[in-house]
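Quick one, probably user error.
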């Protein structure tokens, strides 16, 4: 069996997530415990050499996964450098384990691509753009941009899990989604802690800028991945609606704001 006892594994990951996700506020020690427990409980994922994906679906799916794979591969040197300025060694450990989970996802995606006779990219312009934006200012800027990629990735992986016929691929994507949910909560809680004493007008300005960047990224993503979405039987409008819903949750948890708070002003 390539992915042994998947249902139990999924329950283990959900249980480990409760270590941090059910707590209010931000605690580096609590999140470190979450990442450590998640590492222990996560089942080993090995994708077989061949998978049940139709010949028509393979090219667009490979096209999309190649771009996600290269994005998940980074070493996070810049993020680690910014995290070191927080003077919180435990938070630095959390960031390190977060990066390792992302690299683990990259290895899984690489196996998926190989199982469909695809090749890996060495670079892609979208990855370079995200890296450039993340490095513009400081840690909070990097995390805001990172969250955009995390939201898009989570939604796309969830779409793959729900619409692919191969059960092993579907389970593998489900496990990645669970990790991504933890990552979203980790970064949102950190930002909420950083902005909790900021005036409302500042948080509103940040949300406006963040939202504009998010929707630009969404439109570019949908244009670049429209063939994969079509192969997965998902309409672009529906996918954008899913992205918007996830982003609103992030904005609420990161800045304690929603768009209606700005409109009402």
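Nope, works fine. Designed sequence:
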């Amino acid at each position: 069996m390539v992915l042994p006892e998947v249902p139990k594994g999924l329950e283990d990951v959900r249980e480990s997530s409760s270590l941090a996700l059910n707590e209010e506020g931000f605690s580096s020690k609590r999140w470190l415990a979450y990442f450590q427990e998640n590492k222990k409980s996560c089942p080993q994922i090995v994708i077989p050499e061949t998978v049940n994906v139709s010949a028509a679906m393979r090219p667009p799916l490979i096209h999309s996964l190649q771009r996600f794979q290269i994005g998940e591969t980074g070493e996070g040197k810049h993020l680690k450098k910014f995290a070191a300025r927080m003077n919180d060694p435990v938070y630095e450990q959390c960031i390190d384990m977060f990066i390792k989970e992302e690299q683990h996802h990259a290895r899984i995606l690489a196996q998926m691509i190989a199982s469909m006779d695809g090749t890996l990219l060495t670079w892609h312009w979208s990855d370079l753009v995200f890296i450039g934006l993340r490095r513009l200012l400081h840690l909070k800027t990097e995390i805001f941009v990172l969250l955009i990629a995390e939201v898009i990735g989570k939604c796309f992986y969830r779409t793959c899990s729900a619409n692919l016929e191969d059960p092993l691929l579907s389970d593998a994507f489900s496990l990645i989604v669970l990790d991504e949910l933890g990552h979203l909560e980790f970064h949102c809680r950190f930002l909420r802690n950083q902005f909790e004493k900021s005036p409302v007008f500042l948080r509103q300005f940040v949300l406006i800028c963040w939202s504009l960047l998010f929707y630009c990224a969404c439109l570019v993503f949908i244009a670049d991945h429209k063939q994969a979405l079509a192969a997965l039987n998902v309409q672009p409008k529906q996918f954008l609606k899913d992205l918007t819903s996830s982003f609103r949750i992030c904005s609420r948890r990161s800045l304690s704001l929603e768009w209606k708070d700005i409109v009402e002003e």
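The radius of gyration is 18 Å.
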